[in-house]
Each structure stands twice: as C-alpha cells, then as structure tokens.
Design a protein that fits this description.
The chain is α/β, with parallel strands linked by helices and 188 residues long. It has a domain of 98 residues: Formyl transferase, N-terminal domain (Rossmann fold, 3-Layer(aba) Sandwich), CATH 3.40.50. It has seven helices and seven strands, in the order βαβαβααβαβαββα. Strands 3-2-1-4-5-6-7 form a seven-stranded mixed beta sheet, covered by helices on one side. The radius of gyration is 16 Å and the shape is globular. The N and C termini lie close together (12 Å). The longest helix has 24 residues. It binds 5-O-phosphono-beta-D-ribofuranosylamine (GRF). The site of 5-O-phosphono-beta-D-ribofuranosylamine has 16 residues, from α1, β5 and α7.
Length: 188
Amino acid sequence: MPIKIALFASGSGSNAENIANYHSKSSVFEFPLIISNKADAYVHERAKKLQIPSFTFPREVFLAGDEIITLLKEYEIDYIVLAGFLLKIPTSLVEAYPNKIINIHPALLPKFGGKGMYGQHVHQAVADAGEIESGITIHYVNGNYDEGNIIFQAKCPVLPTDTPDMIAEKVHALEYEHFPRIISELWG
Ligand code: GRF
C-alpha cells in the first residue's frame, strides 16, 4: 500500500510541486491532498496542474485542529510535510501525527528560527548578521516553531555581496535537491 503524504503550503508551493513531481513515478508515495491557509496562494494553481485536490483552512479553523484532523483521517494520511507553511501546527494535530510531521526551514537552525522568521525575513536577517553561510534544516515538528529534532541540514556559502534574494535562490536550490530525497530516506 502506498504511503500517503499530505503537503501543506502557504504561498508559492514550489517545494510542494517539486516533491510531488520527484515522487510521481514511484509506487511508494502518494500525495492525495494539498492544504493551505490561503485561498489565493499560488500552490492551488500548482495543485490543479498536478491533479491533486487542494483545500484552504482559514487561520482560526486550522488552529482549532478538529476539521483538519478529520480531513486527514478521511484521506488516510500517514505523514505530513510542511513546505513553506506559515501557521503554527496545533497541539492536537502534533499529537495525532507524533513524529510524522516534518518541516523545512530556510536557514541553519537553531539560528534564524522562531516566530516571525519565515521567507525573506530569514534571508534578510542572515544578510544583516554578516553570516558566511546559510542553508536548510529539515526537522520534526513539535508544539513550538522550529524547535523539533533536526533530521538533516545542508549548507551554502553567503558572500558579503549577496542580497537576501540571492541567498533565497541558493537556499531554494538546496531545498529542491534534498527535501524529496530526505522524505524517501525517512519513510520510503
Ligand atoms: C521555502 O524557502 C521554505 O523553506 C520556506 O518557505 C519557502 C517556501 O517556498 N519556509 P515555496 O512556497 O516552496 O516556493
């Protein structure tokens, strides 16, 4: 029986698309649904292209937990991958999927993590701090932002002349390269 993974994304969803495409020819994984908290997120367009149903949960409904858990159970979801998902995962959902939810963070945790550290804010903070490297962190999700056990990190150099956009580009390249593979290694 294929392992069923739900992809969660708040924005563009390029990681979600990359993961679904990477595994599209495998019989190991299925991606039966995509969840977002934004009705106008571009990830819904990508979902259409991938022929994966996508759902929007407004913030309050998502944070209450019950409806999302019901939907995930209905689709017999085994694991959850957060790929650029910005809401905190409610405790009830963490408890329903213990050690079965992973997130990707676009920096080298424990640095540059926590509330408010997402997207361009992270890359701006890395540039402002004069860091000489950044990268990605794939980690388990617990009740606190960016604090679950680290599964994998990969690094890229940051040059003094790099803008936040340039750092973002390098980090995205690492995400595309490693995230789908780490999913196989963990659950395949
Ligand atoms: C990625 O950099 C991810 O690490 C982060 O948000 C970004 C999402 O990009 N937390 P996309 O929506 O997958 O294009």
